[in-house]
Design goal:
Elements: H1 4-9, H2 13-21, E1 26-27, E2 31-34, E3 47-50, E4 54-56, E5 63-64, H3 66-74, H4 78-87, H5 95-99, H6 113-131, H7 136-145, H8 150-154, E6 159-161, E7 168-171, E8 174-177, E9 179-186, E10 189-196, E11 204-206
The structure holds zinc ion.
Residues 36, 38-39, 41, 46, 56, 58-60, 62 line the site of zinc ion.
């Protein structure tokens, strides 16, 4: 069993990320900022790095802990990232992949089994929360403001993590934003969990370590020969 908390105690995201990105544009005693390297930001410095977590407040909205940084930037698996961090054998700096505009396309593969079972726990708990007492307001929001029916809430297994929109919880060893959870299934596997927060510049965040790139939401429901309607928002059904 990987002890995620223990690994993270010994690592400061600011040091880890400075190693990959170089000197930050701005540094206070709490956080550092950069141009976001994940969406090749041109104007502004939306990428904020705290001791834990790091987060892009701009276009891509990615964020997470030290482990998810290694997964995202160095294309490691969850397990590899944990091993690298605990042994201190960090991956070599790899400039070319992310610095130019022609980024190498990321493989469409679901996260590993360990991540999936951890995230599955979170999805289950969030479902229980949504239909329980603490989910009253969130459920009301989904039905009344977004116009979803109980069936369209149940079927895709929407859920709820209670907490302030600025809060990030550690559940089953993963970093979880608070809000309405939207599990991302394809090929009968969980690829990621999006979270729609109640407020904040970037409403949609993700549970750390997911990989939903190249994976259309609810792709399994697409059937050959039947009409397909594609909408812009995950909550529009
Ligand atoms: Zn970004």
């Amino acid at each position: 069993m990987i002890d995620v908390e223990r690994i993270k105690q010994n690592i400061d995201c600011r040091d880890l990320i400075e190693r990959d990105l170089g000197k930050p544009k701005y540094r206070s005693n709490k956080y550092s900022t950069y141009k976001c390297p994940l969406h090749n930001e041109e104007k502004g410095y939306s990428f904020g790095v705290y001791g834990d977590p790091w987060v892009c407040f701009g276009k891509c909205g990615h964020g997470g802990d030290a482990i998810s940084w290694l997964i995202e930037w160095h294309n490691l698996s969850f397990q590899e990232a944990c091993e690298r961090l605990s042994s201190g054998d960090l991956p070599k700096l790899q400039q070319p992949i992310h610095t130019s505009k022609n980024r190498v396309s990321v493989l469409s593969e679901p996260p590993d089994l360990e991540w999936r079972s951890r995230a599955e726990e979170i999805v289950k708990q969030a479902e229980v929360n949504l239909w329980g007492e603490q989910g009253t307001r969130a459920l009301h929001y989904l039905k009344e403001q977004r116009g979803l029916t109980e069936a369209t809430i149940l079927e895709p297994r929407l859920g709820y993590i209670q907490g302030d929109y600025r809060e990030w919880k550690t559940l089953s060893g993963l970093i979880v934003p608070c809000g309405v959870t939207i599990p991302w299934y394809a090929d009968q596997m969980l690829w990621g969990v999006k979270v729609r927060r109640a407020a904040g510049q970037q409403r949609y965040q993700q549970v750390s370590g997911g990989n939903i790139k190249g994976c259309p939401y609810l792709a399994d429901t697409i059937q050959p020969g039947l009409p397909l309607m594609i909408t812009e928002g995950d909550l529009i059904r």
